[in-house]
Amino acid sequence: MATTRLATSQNNGPKTVSQLQATMKARDCYRELGDQKSEALMLSNMSRLLLVDERDQDALQPALKAVKIFESLGLVSAEVNAWQFALVAMISNGQTQQCLSMMKDRLAAFDKADQRAAHASLMLVVADCHFADEDASKAIRVSREALDAFAALGDRRQQAAVALKIATLEFEQDGFDEALKAAEQAQMLYRDLGVSGSETEASHMIAHIYTAKGEPEKSPFRQESLSLLESMVHAVEQRDDDAYEKAAVALDKKGSITGDEKFEALKPLLEQDNRGVRDYLKAKGVEQVGPVDTARHFDEKVIYSNYRKGGLQYGPAFRGIKGVWRHGAKGNPDMEVLAVVQLPEDSESWETKLQILHPGLSDSCLQSTAAMVAE
User: Fold this and answer.
1) In this structure, how many other beta carbons lie within 10 angstroms of the beta carbon of residue 362?
2) 290 lies in some domain
3) Largest Cα–Cα distance in the chain?
4) pLDDT digits over 323-370, tens only?
5) Spacing of C-alpha 272 from chain mean position
6) Assigned domain for 152 exists
7) Angle at 348 between CA 347 and CA 353, to 5 degrees
8) I want to staple 78 with a disulfide (CB 3.0 to 4.6 A). Which of 70, 178, 302, 304 is the partner?
9) What number is the average pLDDT over the span 228-245?
C-alpha cells in the first residue's frame, strides 16, 4: 500500500494537495510497518513538497526528522539530501547561523568516521548556507575545498558539478575570470564523462560569462544567438507572441548577446514606432530598452571656481546653485541643463517674500548654463 502511494506522489504534478496527502499516508504506513528508511524518505519528500508549495515553516520539521533517521541508519547520502531541504527551510525562517552550527557538528562526525564523500557533499550545503548569509567569499572557499575533496576521491562527476557551482558563485560576484576557469573545467569533465546535458549547461555558463565580460563574440553559441536575435526582432515587428516567447527564452538561456546589441537590432523598429514597440516589450516584461537615459552631474563648487578663474566672483546671495546636471553630450543641440537653485539660508525675510524672482535666483539659473560647455 505504501509503495503504491509513493509511486503516486512521484508521478503527479508538484504543488498538488493530493500529492502531499499521498506522501503523508505513505509515511504513516511505513511507520506502522517499522520501515524507518522508507519513512524517512517520505519525510524528506514531504519537506520538498512543502518547500515547492512555499510552506517553508512547515517544511523544516519533516526535513530534520528525516535527517535524524538517516543519521541513525548510517545512510549518509540520503542524510545530506535531507539536509538540503532543511537548509532552505531554515534560511527562510531566519535560522542560518543555527543551520551552520548543526552542520558543523555533522562535518566533524563525518570527518571522524572517515566519511569523506559525505563530508564533501555536506560542505556544499554549508557553502549554500554561507551564500544565503551574504558571505560569498566563504561560500566560494568552502566549495573549492569540496572540489579538492572530490578530486582526491576520484569522483569526476561530482567534481564537474562543484566546478559549475563555483562558476555560478564567482559569476554572481563579478569574478568573471575565475568563473570562466571553473566553467571550462566543468565543461571538460562533463564532456569526458559523456554527460551531454550537463556539458551544455556548462557551455551556457561560459556564454553568459563572455557576454558579461563584454566579449560575446567568444561565446560558443554566438552564431546561433545572432540568428535568434533576428527571429526575436521579426517577432516584435509582427507582434507574434509565440515566436517572441520562443526566441526570447532561447536567447536568455544561451546568452551571447549584449543589451546594446539587442537595442541596435531593435533600433529600426523603434524609429518607426517607438511607443508601440516599447509598449509591446513592456507587456513582455522588458522594462528597459537600450541604454539608461541619465544626466551627468557637475559639482557647483567647481563651476563657481571656474567663474572665479575667469574673473567673476559671486557673493553669497548670488551663489544659489545647489545642484546642476547636463542631459546630453556637449555640443548636442538637444542637450538640456537641469539645475536646483536656492536663496542662502541667511537671506533676510523680505527677500524670501518677494513677488518677483529674486535677482540672485535668476542669475544662478544663468550661471548653471556653464554646464553646457563643461568637460
Assistant:
1) 14
2) no
3) 97
4) 899 887 787 787 889 999 887 776 666 666 666 677 778 888 998 888
5) 34
6) yes
7) 100
8) 70
9) 95
Would the pLDDT of 10 be above 70?
no
Q: Which of 159, 194, 215 is the last residue of a domain?
A: 215
| 115 is a domain residue | yes
Using a 10 angstrom Cβ sphere, with 0-12 exposed, 13-18 middle and 19 or more buried, the burial of residue 11 is exposed
Give the residue, 364 or 195, on which the prediction is more confident: 195
CA atoms within 13 A on the CB side of 132: 21
CB 368 within 8 A of CB 321: yes
Contact 132, 91 (CB under 8 A): yes
Average pLDDT of the residues of the chain: 88
Are residue 141 and residue 237 in the same domain, yes or no? Answer: no
Secondary structure of 286-305 as H, E, C letters:
CCCCCCCCCCEEECHHHHHH
pLDDT of residue 2: 36
Would you tell me how many other CB atoms lie within 10 Å of the CB of residue 275?
A: 8
Boundary-marking domain end, from 215, 243, 271:
215
- d(CA 314, CA 308) in angstroms, rounded, equals 8
CA-to-CA distance for 71 and 80, rounded, in angstroms? 9
Cross-strand bridge partners of residue 338: 325
Pairing of strands 296-298, 336-341: unpaired
Confidence of residue 15 (pLDDT cuts 50, 70, 90): low
**Kind plus residue range of the DSSP H or E element containing 324:** strand 321-327
CA distances from 178 to 38, 120, 170, 283 (A): 42, 21, 6, 37
For residue 263, being part of any structural domain is answered with yes
Q: What percent of the chain has pLDDT over 90?
A: 55
- The three cell numbers of residue 159 are 567534481
Q: Are 62 and 197 contained in the same domain?
A: yes
Q: Is residue 23 located within the same domain as residue 148?
A: yes
User: What H or E segment, with its residue span, contains residue 205?
Assistant: helix 196-212
Q: Indicate the pTM of the whole model.
A: 0.69
pLDDT band at 31 (very low <50, low <70, confident <90, very high): very high
My answer on whether 210 and 228 are in the same domain is: no
Q: What's the average model confidence in pLDDT over 165-186?
A: 95
Number of other residues whose CB lies within 10 A of the CB of residue 113:
12
CA quadruple 295, 297, 298, 300: dihedral sign: positive
- Say if residue 266 is in the same domain as residue 125: no
